[in-house]
Amino acid sequence: MERIRTKWLVFFYTPFNPPWYTKWRKKGFTHVGAMMFNAEHKCWVLVEGLYGRLNVEVLSRKQSEKVLSYIKRLHGIVLKGDEKDTPNFRGEWWVKEHSCVSYMQRLLGLRKFFLFTPYQLFCALRKIGFTIFVDATINKGSSMPKVGKKMFSYGSKGIAKAKAEAKKSGKKVTMTKKANKK
């Protein structure tokens, strides 16, 4: 039977009151979770490792948008990519801890042993082709430039890219109030 790989949205963020043991983690990378869309049932599935247990929730479209908006309000990052097909893997189970990182790396098919923090997982996912997921519905109120319906990545390079594309197409570039205050 053929296995179809699933597309995942993997989110990283720091909650309002992070646990004491996460104070050494990189800001914005205290916790990691993932979401996938189940086309057969037309729902989103949220998976998180929370304090040694695996939390799986079924969400509607509206609930999933609320989750992503919450992550963006906390200045989190969302990556998009396919899970990796790594059959017949043995050897990792005997020593890995039960953290959000270890649950997500198993879920996504990453079999690298030395991934312990959410930031290390973020870097590993970027190396294997996960891209930053940016969508207008989850970026309301951000300082990101808008050109038509397109949104661009963070930073001055993204703004310059937006302005260059707007100039080519003749569209007006708009910035949100947050960006204009700087």
Describe the structure.
It is a single chain. By secondary structure, this protein is an alpha+beta fold. 28% of the residues lie in helices and 23% in strands. It has helices at residues 61-73, 100-108, 118-127, 155-169, 177-180; strands spanning 7-13, 31-38, 43-50, 53-59, 77-82, 131-132, 146-147, 150-151. The strands form two sheets. It has a six-stranded antiparallel beta sheet with strand order 4-3-2-1-5-6, sandwiched between helices. The longest helix has 15 residues, at 155-169. The termini are far apart. Residues 135-157 and 176-182 have low confidence and may be disordered.
Give the helix proportion (percent range): 25-40%
Please write the string of helix (H) and strand (E) elements: EEEEHEHHEEEHH
- Cα gyration radius (Å): 18 Å
Low-confidence stretches: 135-157, 176-182
Largest sheet: 6 strands, antiparallel
Going across the biggest sheet, name each strand in turn.
4-3-2-1-5-6
**How many distinct helices?**
5
The first-to-last residue Cα distance is 56 Å
Short description, anyone?
The chain is an alpha+beta fold and 182 residues long. It is 28% helix and 23% strand. The protein contains five helices and eight strands; from the N terminus they run E-E-E-E-H-E-H-H-E-E-E-H-H.
